[in-house]
Design brief:
Number of helices: 4
CATH topology: Aminopeptidase
Order of helices and strands: EHEEEHEHEHE
Low-confidence stretches: none
Distance between the termini: 30 Å
CATH class: Alpha Beta
Radius of gyration: 14 Å
Largest sheet: 7 strands, mixed
Strand content: 25-35%
Strand order of the largest sheet: 1-2-3-4-5-7-6
Number of domains: 1
Helix content: 25-40%
Structural class: alpha+beta
Shape: globular
């Protein structure tokens, strides 16, 4: 049975271990809100929500290869999105924009200075900025 929940900050190293095992670039820190999907007490998916003062930034969304295309990411992100009240931004690879738009994200047309600084660090990866809310 798959369980979705936000990790307590003391358990964030478990998410980082999952990221390392699956060769993800990002690492969560104790200031992040880290959401995970468990299957039989094993993390099978994770993402992190970074507080950027005027908005939240969703990053490092990763599902274990054997659980992909089974709706795990949709369930994980839906649970996270339902708990947030601030605007959430993410940078999605172009091949994933339809997935995020199905969850309610829209393409960013106007960048705030803070978002533009963040986007400049990622834009070489062929991504699109998206916003939820």
């Amino acid at each position: 049975m798959i369980v979705i929940k936000q990790l307590e900050s003391v358990k964030i190293p478990l998410a980082n271990k999952f990221y390392t095992l699956n060769k993800a670039r990002g690492r969560a820190n104790k200031q992040d809100k880290v959401w995970v999907a468990y299957d039989n007490n094993t993390i099978i998916a994770a993402c992190r929500l970074q507080n950027k003062s005027t908005f939240l930034f969703l990053s490092t969304v990763l599902v274990a290869p054997s659980y992909r295309s089974k709706g795990v990411a949709t369930r994980l992100l839906t649970a996270l999105l339902n708990e947030q009240t601030q605007p959430i931004y993410t940078f999605a690879y172009q091949r994933l924009t339809d997935f995020y738009q199905a969850l309610g994200f829209n393409q960013v047309l106007t960048y705030t200075p803070a978002l533009l600084i963040l986007f400049d660090a990622y834009k070489h990866r062929n991504i699109i900025a998206l916003k939820y809310q």
